[in-house]
Amino acid sequence: LPMAFRDVTARRHIGLQQLASLALAGRTLLGPMKSCKFIVDESTNQSTLICSAVRLIESLDLTSAAGQLLNETIQAQDKEFKTGMSTLLFLTGAWSNAVLECLQQNVPVSAIVSVMSEGLNSCCERVQCLQISIHDVNKELCSSSVRPNTFKNETCQIGRDSLLNPQSFLSLQKDISAPEEVIPINSCSYQEDYCDFNKCQASSLAGCGSIASLVKPLGNKSSSVISGSGVIASSCNKPKLTHSRYFSTLGKSHFSSRQGNFQGYLSGQSADPCECYGLGHLAMTLSHGNQASMKLLQSIVAYQQRAERGGSSQFNIAEIVTCCLLGLPESYSCVSPGFVTLLSPEQAKVIKRFEDKPLRILLMDGDLTEQYRHLGFNRPRNVRTILEHPSLQEGRAGDLWLSSMLDILISFEVDLVLVKGTVCANLMERCIANSILVVGSVTRDVLCAFGEATSAQPVTYLTQLNAACVGSGARVELWKACDGRAMDLGELVPVRIKARGIPLLTAVLTTTVASKMQLVEDCFWTSVYRLHHALIDGKVFLGGGAVELLCLSHIQMLAEQPLQPANKDAVKEFQSPWLAASATECKSVVLQALASGWKQYLSVVMCNTAKAASELEACTSVEHHLKKAADCGSPSAYILEEFRRGDLLKGGSGPFADHGEDLKVYDNVTAKTEAWRRALDLVLLVLQTDAEIITGPKRNQLLNSHLSSEFMFL
User: Fold this and answer.
1) What processes in GO biological process is this protein linked to (predicted)?
2) DSSP 8-state code for residue 145
3) Contact assessment for residue 24 and residue 92, using Cβ atoms and an 8 Å cutoff
4) Burial classification of residue 219, based on how many CB atoms lie within 10 Å of its CB (0-12 exposed, 13-18 middle, 19 or more buried)
């Protein structure tokens, strides 16, 4: 019978094996130096480039139940945090293998579930000592010795290049201070004007030679002057890099000399001069080496902190949208105020008639089609439907609807219509013929932003329209690249819709590789949400493997504790003295299995970032740190000291190796711990589900044995 039991145990946990196999495909996606993968569709021979766990799982043909559960778990993490999916995927595979090893050693399922859950909870409590508040992070970044070197050249280039092209930064300055947005472009002396602008913003300070002199509190008020991009440093006179693809031709504009007093991003603590530019620097420490997205995010942060917020200058993620332009080099990526979207050439022709003209705008909270009905609409009773969807080209009723809708728009002198949903193609053609621009598939956040800026009120149906619902002051123009040219990408034309005072910002993402477009957008949103969740948590974890190393040290310490006999509470919990005793005896084995997940995590990250030539070398390095932490007597103190010195799991390269600086890296708190919990919950769910599915020739023998009460036969 024991042999039969072991045979069934080895054969029935197919779900864990499937999880481990699926997770194996995502090993190269772990850490800051990810290796991209091409996913090829064999039926169409089309391929896409992915660099995240969520895109990997989406692209795979998942037919098993375990694969579907893994997909749902990763999708839930992505929907809530937009980060931590690769960690979740890897730990799912690592802990699946660890559980399988425990099963091979005849560890009861109940003991595995109990000890692993308790071990993870204990780790989450233990690593709280490695959390640091955002306020303390900013103070450390201000006083850090690497800050002047890090930002001496790099942030000056961000300032000079600002929104990754000078013209976009000029337009931001114009949008803040000037009633009209006429942006002169001259490629001669933009560098001089930018430094003059810095001097104007910090005119009461000691000059541009010191980092600390750029930001000072104004009197006793809880406000600060934000210079340049919010993280601008010294050495603005000489560009250090001219060959990089991320820097464009210089231009010129006249900046506003108006000084502004802006609140820090943490209410009640913004009297600290470090607060006002800490967001831009914090974005860099959370970017994990994604420099292109980091520069865009720093530009967005700088703009939002310069804009007046009525007493608060929080980072507002709802004011950020993206527009993907395929066909332009990545150096054309920039941040543009307003709403940038892609329209057809026919729609773009209408824009030429709107040049330098304020437009009357209408917002539609739904579809602009004859068949659209709002959610919750109840059809009238005792009405017989003859035809549900008549053809608008053949039916007179359809022509009547088109004519009536167009008459409504013309009667209220509407120039621009933003629609949340889809737009009837026939109505679109008639609107273009009457010089009315209709834009569909606009998000709710964009509608809200234009509603606040233009006083327009959204309507569900055009028949509800009245004069109070139509806003004014919107403007439309062709989006211009960094060289000042309007872009025509063939089938689609990028267009910018704006209004005075609108806080909306569009990150224009460009690439010449079609399969890379989704990757570029994903990387940008990951950086945005990392900063967003860091501010929501109000704290961050020490990065660079510090948290995982402490978890590994803590679990090993728990596993080495002497075994204690099962107490009354354990007997009561497991409903059986035998199970309680098994959990106590197997505790060390299960904890070591749990620790193996984090050990593999650190090893793979070190290999992916070229900090170790092999996993064996990486494991040796991890063991070396564990031994030194144990000898120190306080693993957390050792890890904290190594992190501050920059020697924790350090190798030949890192996410900021290009800067030649030891810039510290931080991680999100909630996103990381939730990734751990979701990974372990998924593994234990599949474990317990598999444990109740028994197959094989020994079924009847098990059914007649004294162990049959432990199984549920379906």
Assistant:
1) chaperone-mediated protein complex assembly; photoreceptor cell maintenance
2) T
3) no
4) exposed
Q: What CATH fold (topology level) applies to the domain 3-132+541-562+582-651+661-713?
A: GROEL; domain 1 (1.10.560)
Angle at 23 between CA 20 and CA 25, to 5 degrees: 120
Identify which of 494, 275, 470, 511 has the alpha carbon closest to the alpha carbon of residue 364.
Answer: 470
- Between 377 and 83, the more confident residue is 83
Pick from 636, 641, 648, 644: nearest CA to 557 = 636
Q: Which two tokens stand for residue 615?
A: 């996993």
Name the segment(s) of the chain with CATH classification 3.50.7.10: 339-373+398-503
Residues 6+ apart with CB under 8 A from 222: 263, 264, 268, 269, 270, 271
pLDDT in tens, 553-566: 999 999 887 655 54
Asked whether 592 and 95 are in contact (CB, 8 A), the reply is no
- Position 49 scores a pLDDT of 84
- Dihedral angle computed from the Cα positions of residues 417, 478, 517 and 87, in that order, rounded to the nearest 10 degrees: -70
Please state the pTM of the whole predicted model.
Answer: 0.76
C-alpha torsion 638→644→646→647, nearest 10: -10
Return the CATH fold of 339-373+398-503. Answer: GroEL (3.50.7)
Lowest-confidence pick of 10-19, 372-381, 472-481: 372-381
Q: Outline where 44-163 has alpha helix (H).
A: 53-59, 65-81, 85-104, 109-126, 134-143, 146-161
Asked if 116 and 594 touch (Cβ cutoff 8 Å), the reply is: yes
Of the candidates 635, 611, 592, 597, the residue with the CA atom closest to the CA atom of residue 544 = 611
**Ranges for all domains in the chain classified under CATH 1.10.560.10:** 3-132+541-562+582-651+661-713
